[in-house]
Amino acid sequence: MNPIPLINRTLLLAVAPFIGMICFLLIFQLSVQLPELKRYAKTEFSIQNQLQQASQQLDKAKTDAAQTRTTIERFFQLYEQSATDVANLAKTADAASSKPAAIFDTRISAKLGAKPSKQTTSSNLDMKLYYLNEPNYKAYALKVDMKSDKALKMVLGKDKIGSSETTLEAARRYGAVAGINAGGFADDNKTGRRYPLSNTIMNGKFVYGFEPTFENLAFIGLSTDRKLIGGRFSRQEDLDKLKPSFGATFVPVLLQNGKKQAIPAQWQSSPARAPRTIVGNFKNDQLLFMVTDGYDERGNSGATLAELQEKLLQLGVKDAYNLDGGGSSSLIYDGQVINHPSDGKLRPLPTHFLFFK
């Protein structure tokens, strides 16, 4: 067979499908759509727009954060300034509140002496000791501002009924900064025991039970709200109304509400002069204890009760009471005996007032 026609037929079969496809496209006129470039352009533009908006929002967030930080810093500055202002106001208020007390102390100091010879200041009390040189007697004045219930207490001699000890011994035993003798006493000659006189209260309770006032005796003590209380009581309920915390008994009442009280006749002359221990209070409830010196109990040295009444009024004392005196008068400060006991030594006593830092 001639090879040329064979080659031609082979080529024709090879290209026939392409020729058929072209004829089909020409007959039916099909079209093929290419992707729209505009759509892709719009999509690209939308993405760019979103990126721009996100960038703007991020910038705004940064700005807001900076403003917030500035506001917080300003707030803390105002807070610190306010705290400083409040602290300054508190200091001013404290200074203003303490000013009347300072004025009071200045006035009392001017009357008692230029400067205290001793003083103690703590969270419990503010205490100052003054030496007085009066025309007819020498005395020691202890001004006490109690700041807490722990400032002052009354103790029994050796903490037992019927026992006694000196004020110095009691102060050392308790670790007190100061001490003063308290109420009177009665001795049992058979047993040699020394008992507190009449109404005596410890920790809000009567040591013996209540005894109506007799022979011008007076109860002298401190209330549960740290106020000086005292007087003559025929009924226990009248004393109970004053809410006594502790106290002892002696004679007589010297001042009440800034007015002199009548001094019983026997106490005007028997003895006329003597070592004395008295207690009084000012209008602001500060206490004043006074101890006068005397070289014996025969009535020739020391102070009269009338002289002490005048001195107390001059100092502005409101209420005042006479405590046990004579050889019992004792004033202890910082472990030292301040007064000059008329016995030549301290007398053992059944009750003592002690002061604590």
Automatic annotation (TrEMBL):
Molecular functions per Gene Ontology: hydrolase activity, acting on glycosyl bonds
Keyword Hydrolase (UniProt): yes
Residue stretches making up the Phosphodiester glycosidase domain: 174-356
UniProt key word Hydrolase: yes
TM regions (residue ranges): 12-32
Protein keywords: Glycosidase, Hydrolase, Membrane, Transmembrane, Transmembrane helix
Residue ranges that the Swiss-Prot or TrEMBL entry lists as coiled coil: none
PANTHER family from the UniProt entry: N-ACETYLGLUCOSAMINE-1-PHOSPHODIESTER ALPHA-N-ACETYLGLUCOSAMINIDASE
Name of the molecule in the record: Phosphodiester glycosidase family protein
Protein species of origin: Paenibacillus foliorum
